[in-house]
Design goal:
Structural class: alpha+beta
Strand content: 15-25%
Number of helices: 13
Helix content: 40-55%
Number of strands: 10
Shape: elongated
Largest sheet: 6 strands, mixed, barrel
Length: about 400
């Protein structure tokens, strides 16, 4: 038999029992589709996290108090004050730092008309919106003069604006924080947020006003730094540490009770976590592909048993061992290949929908790998039934009842 005859014979064998072949294809389809789709979920999740972190700005660093130890072994919090922020803003001391944004963060009840909610209040400078990549979509931000004169103006997040002023334009309206009225200057653009702040729900006001009316003149919650470029983040971080150590009189690095983090570190940590998550999903899906392969073996063993007399007749008429082996091996491989292609189609259709809140992103390498593995499974798991058929003696096969 030539290759074409073997292929035709294999197709006839598959179509002779359509239900059995369909169920076998379904097993492989589910396995291949699961691998591709779950790897896609992991990839989609990684892209979403990267986009969220990127939206915060890739050249920003955040200085926070805490994290160090005292000589007695307890946690000791370092004072982050405006004096530290002012020292970081000296260009001659930190040439790779472009902007310095001090922040005081607290929670307060905010009231607008009959609506009240608890919101995160951020007291900061006018550079906040540029440095944290939080543009004002409607209205305006506050100015340097607003900061200097401690005016009662605020800019609110998109979600907070919807909560306080449902169906209304928030700009120009008044909100009450504590017992003090503030005028809404603008509404920030909605954006995906991660990390320490969700800008959709914050209320941003001049630092001077927040310290005067809400938080008091204590320490800062954090200081956000913007490097001069994405390539100078590391240099800016080193310069910031040197300036802070000098300002706070820290001589031993182990006594430093502050931390400086950048978005690249956060992205690296999230990427590592997502890769582990994706590998775990792929491993779970791979088990279903293995189960599909075992189904191929089971069906091919049944097929060989049912067609034993046919095998005996063909051998009696001169069919070689290789021809019998090739026929059943081709049939098993075709089952796996067609099931795999249907699995790819199913995964592509499934990727159009969100799974667990994540839009899957099909990875080409996972498609190629899943198809290759499905073919290998056909050859591997179909090998034993095919070898068993090829090893039959014509006399024994013809005697089979």
């Amino acid at each position: 038999m030539n290759g074409w005859e073997i292929l035709r014979s294999s197709l006839r064998g598959m179509t002779s029992n359509k239900m059995r072949s369909a169920l076998t294809l379904l097993g492989v389809l589910i396995g291949v589709g699961s691998v591709i789709l779950l790897v896609g979920v992991g990839s989609g999740s990684a892209k979403a996290v990267a986009a969220q972190i990127d939206s915060l700005g890739t050249s920003t660093l955040t200085v926070r108090a805490g994290g160090g130890g005292s000589s007695s072994g307890g946690i000791r919090f370092q004072n982050l004050t405006l004096k530290v922020a002012d020292a970081l803003a000296v260009k001659s001391e930190a040439p790779d730092i472009k902007a310095v944004v001090p922040e005081v963060t607290t929670s307060q009840t905010v009231t607008a008309g009959s609506v009240s909610t608890t919101a995160q209040i951020v007291g900061t400078t006018a550079d906040y919106f540029t440095v944290t990549n939080s543009p004002v979509a409607h209205g305006t931000s506050f100015t340097v003069n607003d900061y200097t004169t401690a005016r009662r103006v605020v800019v609110i997040g998109a979600q907070l604006a919807t909560t306080l002023f449902p169906g209304e334009d928030a700009v120009g309206k008044t909100v009450i924080i504590g017992s003090t009225p503030y005028v809404v200057n603008g509404v920030m653009a909605a954006k995906d947020s991660t990390g320490f702040e969700n800008t959709n729900t914050v209320l941003v006001a001049p630092l001077t006003r927040v310290q005067q009316s809400i938080s008091g003149y204590g320490n800062l919650s954090s200081i956000v730094l913007q490097a001069t470029g994405s390539g100078t983040v590391t240099a800016a971080q080193t310069e910031a540490a040197t300036v802070i150590d000098s300002t706070l009189k820290i001589t031993n690095p182990s006594d430093a009770t502050y931390s400086i983090s950048n978005q690249s570190q956060l992205l690296s940590a999230r990427t590592s976590t997502t890769s582990t998550f994706t590998a775990m999903l792929a491993a779970v899906a791979g088990i279903s592909l293995l189960v599909g392969g075992i189904g191929v073996t089971n069906i091919m063993l049944v097929t060989v048993t049912e067609r034993t007399r046919e095998i005996g007749i063909r051998k009696a008429l001169g069919a070689t061992r290789g021809a019998i082996l090739g026929q059943f091996l081709t049939e098993a491989t075709l089952l796996s290949l067609i099931g795999g292609l249907l699995g790819v189609a199913g995964a592509v259709i499934g990727s159009q929908f969100s799974i667990m809140g994540v839009k899957p992103s099909i990875v080409t390498s996972s498609v190629v790998l899943a198809l290759g593995v499905s073919m290998a499974i056909g050859i591997f798991f179909g090998g034993y039934p095919a070898a068993r058929a090829a090893a039959m003696r014509p006399v024994d096969a013809l005697r089979h009842d």
